[in-house]
Amino acid sequence: MEGVNKYPLRHIMVPKGDIYHALKATDDGFRGFGEAYFTRIRHGEVKGWKRHNKITLNLVVALGCVKFVVYDDREDSPSKGEFCELILSPDDDYCRFTLAPGLWMAFTSISEGESIVLDIINMPHDLSETDSKTLDEIPYKFDG
């Protein structure tokens, strides 16, 4: 889906605790720095639907395993009406997921306990540039 990119990240194993890279200014998907924050999500809970109209998201799962679902309702898009699913975890296929403005996203923790997601965005968070919908307003069935 145009506007959805997945980039492999470096995971360096060291005896006293591993190092996990997230984002450098020279990486593909970097559109500037505005803010970085973490969000926690409990197993089986779903956060979404949310669409940013100006902000580019760079999402990295720091703990647990998270399923991200992207929905495209952009009028001029060849993937209009389609869904894209990505599963991220620091333990398996460690990656960063970059989401362009204009796409809807929701996500759920699929690991036991709690998951933690790091989001690095290209401008300070601004509620006036976001749109939200309830889970039942977009026709996607989350398991659980």
Description:
It is a single chain. With 144 residues, this protein is an all-beta fold. The protein has one domain: Jelly Rolls (Sandwich). It has no helices and twelve strands. It has a five-stranded antiparallel sheet, with no helix packed on it. The protein has a five-stranded antiparallel sheet with strand order 8-7-10-5-12, with no helix packed on it. A two-stranded antiparallel ribbon has the order 2-3. A hairpin with a 6-residue loop joins strand 2 and strand 3. The radius of gyration is 15 Å and the shape is globular. The model has no long low-confidence stretch (mean pLDDT 95). InterPro entries: RmlC-like_jellyroll, RmlC_Cupin_sf. This is dTDP-4-dehydrorhamnose 3,5-epimerase.
List the main descriptive attributes of the protein structure presented here.
mainly beta; 45% strand; Jelly Rolls; 144 residues; globular; five-stranded antiparallel β-sheet
Order of helices and strands: EEEEEEEEEEEE
CATH fold-type name: Jelly Rolls
Q: Beta-sheet strand percentage?
A: over 45%
How far apart, in Å, are the first and last alpha carbons?
A: 26 Å
CATH superfamily: Jelly Rolls
How would the global form be characterised?
globular
How can the largest sheet be summarized? 5 strands, antiparallel
CA radius of gyration is 15 Å
Uncertain ranges: none
DSSP helical segment count: 0
Spatial order of the strands forming the largest sheet: 1-9-6-11-4
- Provide the CATH architecture: Sandwich
Number of domains as seen in the coordinates:
1
Derived structural class: mainly beta
Protein name: dTDP-4-dehydrorhamnose 3,5-epimerase
InterPro entries: RmlC-like_jellyroll (IPR014710), RmlC_Cupin_sf (IPR011051)
Organism: Bacteroides luti
